[in-house]
Amino acid sequence: MPSLSPTRIAADVRRGAAAGSSAERGQCLEDLITYVLSRVPGLRFSDSRVRTTDGSEEVDVVFWNDKMPGGFPFADHVLLIECKNWNSRVGSDELHHFDGKLHQRHLRIGLLVAALGVTGDETGRAATALIERYYVVDSVTIVVITHDDLRSLRSTDALVRLVQDRISKIVLQAAG
Are 92 and 86 in contact (CB under 8 A)? Predict the structure, then answer.
C-alpha cells in the first residue's frame, strides 16, 4: 500500500488555484493526478497532452495499466484521464466529449478529474445523469474525481477503493 503525501496534494491543489492562466491551472491538476496515479501498483505514466494525428483532439494524461493486484485490474490496459481545473462544475458538453474519446478508442473506463465535480446531483440531473447513460448505452464508465477526493487520500489503496466505489455506484444507479 504505497502512501500518498497529503502535504504535497494540498500544495498542488493550492498551486493550481493560484495559477495565472487556465493552461497553468490545467497543468497543475495534470501534475497532481500524475503523481497520485504513478504511485498505484501496475500503473505507469505513458504520456500527456497527446494530440490526435489530425490535431482535432487532445488527451490530457495517459497511463499504461498492467492490471496488477492492488491497482486497477478491472480497467483497460490504456487509461485516459481528462483534467478540468475549473472554478465551476464540469457540464454535459465536456462529459459528452470525453465519452466520445473513450468510445472511439474502445475503452471502458476513463477518469475525469474535475476540481469541483460535475453538474447535477444524485437525483439524476445534468452531467450526473449522462454518466449513467454512457454506462448503459456505450458501456463506458466515467469516474469523477474531485479536489476534495484527492485531498482526502492517504494511500493508493484509498484511491483504488474510491474508483471501485464510484464504478459500483454508476452500475447500481444506471437505469437500462
Answer: no
Residue 19: strand, helix, or coil: coil
pLDDT digits (tens, 9 = 90+) for 123-163: 446 787 888 888 888 889 999 999 999 999 999 999 999 99
Print burial letters for 50-89: b (CB count within 10 Å at least 16), e (below 16).
eeeeeeeeebbbebebeeeeebbeebbebbbbbbbbbeeb
Sorted by sequence, the CB contacts under 8 Å of residue 55 that are 6+ apart come out as none
Given the C-alpha cell 489530425, which residue does it identify?
A: 54
Q: Which domains does the chain have, with CATH numbers?
A: 6-117+124-173 (3.40.91.30)
Q: What is the model's pTM?
A: 0.93
115: which 3 cell numbers? 476540481
